[in-house]
Amino acid sequence: MVNSRATLCIDAGTTLIKAVVFDASGHELVVASRPTTVASPMPGFAEQDMMSVWRAVIESAREAVERSPHPIERISVTAQGDGAWLLGRDGRPVRPAILWNDARSREVIARWRDDGTLDRAFAINGSLSNLGLPNAILSTLIADDPEALDRVDSVLTCGSWLFYQLTGVVGLHPSEASAPWLDVSRGEYSPELLDLYGLSSNRDLLPPVLDDSSVASTLDIDAATALGLPRGIPVVLAPYDVVATAAGGGTVDAGSAFCILGTTLCTGVVVDRPDTTGTPSGLTLRIADDGPFVRAFPTLAGTGVIEWMARIVGAADAPDLVRLAALAPPGSAGLTVWPYFSPAGERAPFLDEDARGVIAGLSFEHSREHLARASVEGLAHVVRDCLAAAPETPVMLTLSGGGAGSDLWCETLADVTGVTTVRTGDSQIGAKGALIYAAVATGEFDSVGAAARELVVTTERFEPHAELRSMYDSRHTDFVASRAAFQPRWATWAAHGRG
Question: C or N terminus of the chain, fewer CB within 10 Å?
């Protein structure tokens, strides 16, 4: 007898909302999507209309429900993380959401770095604050838009905003609250951190942190009507997309590693316990009441680099650029791209709001194919840089995100990092992670590990080519050394760019 249970998983990315229906065995049945718009009302700003994001969720989810061959018995939500999604006392948005890649808090982060706040905070929560985290954004709004803050009830993230719209429950998943608010070892808000950030008087704006027993609620009547689903079915707030995508690729056991090749290039490892010593870098994310934790290094350099280079060399789109890259030899004939192209600089594995990209080694002998290959290789060097900052070097790296569909990306990452890369058979890995967490929250499995072992299947492996190892080791040494040489010039370059 065929099991007809189905789960609707919502994966709300920065530019695309996806609604995916899975059957009881974890097979994708339906994928529906809607694009969203990121506004930039001023240079370096990145904002989204919160109600527009909600409408895109309704439209994609309703289409998925209507196309599903089985009735929907539960919903799970994962979404882009960080940023500040401000919920008013009237239950409506106060202003457009400020996103994870927004650059307006440049001066706040620079001040915190100079006065030691960032280092002291890392010793409590194992995370290095950056421009896109809500502590920096709130500090900026206090100075620039205090009237908006006067109307705020709760500072949410995208995932917690959607969970509120679906259930009426206000709260943060521990993965969302970890950076910047939690004493990560205890899983509680840290008064010392709030004091460090100068935000003690804003403590009432932080919603409750949801524990294992409260990340699941029920669909309320308004959302049920909008989605065409029965009122009262379970709704689960899964970890935000970095953690959910890791789980969706099977990266759930301590020591396992992942890399998401998306808008942000996020590399991470699963660890048993947090480590708040050493050089501050990346984020430490609490997932559940009893661990484990994820050490994540979400860069600001990602697939946007590929899209930008596609426009520069006249490629039709990002996949076309990757096809061009395959026509150039490994090493790009000495051409190197340092892909720090975000107006907000870089946040992992190092933090510098003025970081800027460099293309070096050009000659008349290079073609657009070489530029394409150097862009892919430059991002692979960034991943290797992040792995070097992780607690230990993995023996395998699970890949996901749009870039993971390219054999060239997978092969290049294996060659540059020296680590075997793998990918799974799912197209929607973030949504698969949301399914895994929903299965645990609703009692179907007793652990995330058990759910992942049942629901995730690895399909392909890419081994490093031994004959390329020496060349890429040498190039990576130069990549890191040259970046150190560029760094003193970044602030000047950034200032010229801002006019």
Answer: N
